[in-house]
Design a protein that fits this description.
Elements (H helix, E strand, L loop, with lengths): L5 E6 L2 H9 L8 E6 L7 E6 L1 H4 L9 H7 L4 E4 L2 H16 L11 E5 L2 E5 L1 H4 L3 H19 L3 E6 L2 H7 L8 E3 L5 H5 L12 H9 L5 H6 L2 H8 L1 H11 L15 E12 L2 H22 L1 E12 L4 E12 L2 H18 L4 E9 L2 E2 L10
Parallel strand pairs: 2-4, 7-8
Antiparallel strand pairs: 1-6, 1-7, 2-3, 5-6, 9-12, 10-11, 10-12, 10-13
Length: 366
């Protein structure tokens, strides 16, 4: 059986990094993005901050008024959730292009606005050196297309991939292969184990369990009697770096999409159509592998100014015909091109409103 390879991408100080990108004058300053309550100028909590602000002790979750006391010269900005989400969607589209095409199950799991797991076992053939190369490609593409950095962790499961992505932040990449698990895990404090909160860490400390090595060597029956069967067994497995949990698309994420960069910034319909055809082919392969049909088609374009535009069409019933998808995608693209005077940099296609086929006929079968 091929060695499982999971990659975790974590965008670096995402909200604050976007604000720095949009206003380069912020670079080098302490930038604090606040979820404001509206009661007064700084009533609310810190949602995100850059590394300069962290140097003053400012962290997510503390009151904005406290952050102001820690650094009165910091730049305080309100959260722009919709704007951040639109950029997150673009980043996630990039990431989806790197995952395995699976016959069963999923190979992509977005766990927050700025984090996702990618299954790349088939793409790498279980080879962690190849996984490192893919990680670097992802980092370079996000930097090139969005002018943002991310940190990447690669391991044999979600647990290890998630833990490794934080080792070389910001803008780092770390690989832990199966034969490096012990040397990576055992010296760490038990609080560093992903999934262990302050309460559990406190209980473990009272039991004399300080490091993951202590946890790995602890009697599992004692763990079960203290934390319950499921939690006790999980703690024992996690300390050994064992995690069989699958990657699962988040609820409500019923869509399949592909996005890619054009060979050069262009409005040439021939070049754009060639790439669009390839993306449609990839989407159809994924639909076929999962035995799904679709109702809604969306075409996305990102121009050379990094502005994103989308248009969608919804059919009156579900289909899974490649011909229909090709026709709709090109029709939408022609409309987008007729409205664009700026050369395109990237194009994408997405199908949504998905449904299991269950022997259903395609539009061309009627």
């Amino acid at each position: 059986m091929m060695q499982r390879v999971i990659l975790h991408v974590d965008m670096d100080y995402f909200f604050a990094a976007i604000e720095e990108r949009e206003n380069p004058e912020l670079r080098g300053k302490a930038v604090v993005v606040c979820m404001l309550s509206g009661r007064n100028e700084l009533s609310g909590a810190v949602s995100a901050c850059n590394y300069v602000a962290r140097g003053y002790g400012i962290i997510s979750g503390i009151p904005c008024s406290k952050a102001k006391k820690l650094n009165p010269k910091a730049v305080f900005l309100p959260v722009r959730k919709e704007f951040y989400t639109s950029i997150s969607n673009r980043v996630m589209e990039i990431l989806r292009n790197y995952v395995d095409v699976r016959e069963e199950g999923d190979a992509f799991e977005q766990i927050s606005i700025d984090e996702a797991f990618l299954g790349i076992t088939e793409k790498t053939g279980g080879n962690f050196s190849r996984a490192f190369e893919i990680g670097m490609q992802i980092k370079n593409e996000i930097k090139e297309t969005e002018n943002l950095t991310c940190s990447v962790g690669i391991g044999p499961n979600k647990l290890i991939a998630k833990m490794t992505s934080s080792i070389k932040k910001p803008d780092g990449i770390t690989v832990v292969s199966p034969n490096e698990l012990e040397s990576f895990l055992l010296p760490l404090k038990v609080s560093k184990l992903w999934g262990i909160g302050d309460v559990t860490a406190g209980k473990l400390q009272k039991m004399g369990i300080i490091t993951i090595k202590d946890l790995a060597e602890h009697d599992v029956t004692h763990l079960i009697s203290t934390f319950g069967k499921n939690r006790g067994i999980w703690l024992k497995k996690a300390a050994a770096g064992i995690d069989d949990s699958p990657l699962k698309e988040r609820d409500g994420s019923e869509q399949i999409s592909r996005i890619s960069t054009l060979p050069k910034d262009t409005l040439d319909i021939k070049l754009i159509s060639q790439l669009l055809n390839k993306l449609v082919e990839d989407v159809i392969c994924k639909l076929d592998s999962m035995e799904l049909s679709f109702r809604t088609v969306t075409v996305m374009v990102i121009n050379s100014n990094l502005r994103m535009y989308t248009k969608s069409r919804t059919l009156n019933h579900h289909v899974h015909s490649k011909e229909v998808l090709v026709e709709m995608a090109h029709e939408i693209m022609r409309e987008l091109l007729s409205e664009s005077h700026v050369e395109l940099r990237r194009v994408g296609v997405r199908v949504s409103s998905l449904l299991k086929r269950k022997g259903q006929k395609s539009l061309f079968d009627y």
